UniProtKB/TrEMBL annotation:
Keyword tags: Coiled coil
Annotated source species: Aplanochytrium stocchinoi
UniProt protein name: Structural maintenance of chromosomes protein 5
Protein family according to the UniProt entry: Belongs to the SMC family. SMC5 subfamily.
Chain positions covered by the region annotation Disordered: 1-23
Gene Ontology cellular-component annotations: nucleus; Smc5-Smc6 complex
GO molecular function annotation: single-stranded DNA binding
Length: 403
């Protein structure tokens, strides 16, 4: 029984082993098929990946080429920019050098002009002296005595004649030397040699002073020109507004310069008040009192944006104006003073036209003086609206409206 049991157990193990071997064989076959299938898919994927990599590499290469070209263009542009900056710096330095040279040449030209004027003056003086000497010489040795001898000279060549004259001068000098004159000549020559370095130093100092003065002149003229230009814009605008109102007029402001004398600098005001008239400098000889008052008034209005102040007082600016000019001037004053940013205005005047256009921000104050004026407690609106200013007759008391 034990042997049968052992045999049975051995058969079971044998069957189990056979099953396991069969399963192992089946699994190995499946594994081989799976391995073969995996290798086949891997090759396909690898080929696809290689194609994508090649495509990416091709695109990358193309982008790199484009980038390289752009970098080359950028480098070339930078080189051109640097070269242009160098050219600009060179041109600027050359321009400054030329400007300095031009200033020096201008200064030298002025000095040469002065020297030329001095030479002309000296020549004129020497000519007068020569004429006087000739008169005195003719008194001592009349020309008629030696005229025939001069005409007998056969020399016509200029150089030969000059040499002959020089020889005669030398002979005269040897025969009639003047020790006092020679001593004076030597003293003056020593003085000239002694003062030479000082003169050169003064010339350099004057040159430096001229350059400094020119630099200060430029620093002054540039902002001043801008200020005058700003005034001119407002001045022309005020005149144009009056022109648009039907009054023929125009005006302009100009910065006046004088290269020779800075004391002659100024602001020139040119105006015209007729259609067929040219612009002329504002003058009491040409323009009437009303025209000058109107011009002055508009010029003051043009200045108000440049000079900040809390209030302004205008005293009798309308004196001398006719009714038309006064209305136009008052209209410009209203527009200039009734804005949010404009300062307060006090207009003091002994008279005002009737029918002027006022603004709601305007306050009118009447100052009474004298024993014959209407008392303050009797003043009323009816009196103001119906009676002209400074009229002597009064309104009956039964028609007055108390204020």
């Amino acid at each position: 029984r034990d042997a049968d049991k052992t045999l049975t157990e051995a058969n079971k193990q044998k069957n189990t082993r056979s099953k396991l071997q069969s399963m192992l064989k089946t699994r190995k076959a499946k594994l081989a098929r799976a391995e073969k299938e995996r290798n086949k898919n891997f090759d396909k994927e690898a080929e696809i990946i290689r194609e994508k990599i090649a495509e990416k590499n091709e695109k990358t290469t193309l982008h790199v080429k484009v980038l390289v070209d752009r970098v080359k263009d950028k480098v070339s542009a930078c080189k051109q920019h640097i070269l242009k900056n160098l050219e600009l710096s060179t041109a600027s330095a050359l321009l400054r050098a030329r400007q300095n040279q031009m200033k020096e040449e201008s200064y030298r030209t002025e000095k040469l002009k002065e020297e030329l004027n001095e030479i002309h003056e000296s020549l004129s003086k020497k000519t007068k002296e020569a004429k006087q000497a000739k008169k005195e010489a003719e008194k001592i040795a009349p020309m008629e005595t030696y005229k025939l001898q001069f005409e007998a000279i056969a020399i016509t060549d200029h150089d030969v004649l000059c040499n002959a004259i020089e020889m005669l001068k030398n002979r005269i000098s040897e025969c009639h030397s003047n020790p006092a004159l020679i001593e004076e000549f030597n003293q003056r020559r020593e003085l000239i040699e002694k003062l030479g370095p000082e003169v050169e130093a003064l010339k350099e100092e004057v040159g430096d002073s001229v350059v400094t003065l020119e630099r200060k002149k430029i620093a002054f003229e540039s902002p001043m020109q801008k200020v005058v230009d700003d005034i001119n814009v407002r001045f022309e605008k005020h005149f144009q507004s009056i022109h648009d109102s039907g009054y023929e007029c125009a005006g302009t402001v100009k910065f006046l310069k004088d290269d020779e004398d800075p004391r002659k600098y100024g602001v020139g005001v040119r105006v015209k008040f007729r259609a067929n008239q040219k612009m002329q400098q504002l003058s009491a000889d040409i323009h009437s009192g009303g025209e000058r008052s109107l011009t002055t008034f508009l010029y003051l209005l043009s200045l108000q944006d440049l000079a900040q102040s809390p209030f302004r007082v205008v005293d009798e600016i309308n004196q001398g104006m006719d009714a038309k000019k006064e209305r136009l001037a008052f209209g410009r004053l209203i527009k200039a003073s009734c804005t949010k940013k404009s300062p307060q205005y006090f207009l003091i005047t002994p008279k005002l036209l009737r029918g002027l256009k006022y603004d709601e921000n305007i306050t009118i104050n009447f100052v009474f003086n004298g024993p014959h004026c209407v008392p303050q407690e009797k003043w009323n609106k009816f009196h103001l609206s119906k009676r002209p200013f400074f009229e002597k007759h009064s309104i009956p008391s039964n028609k007055r409206i108390k204020v």
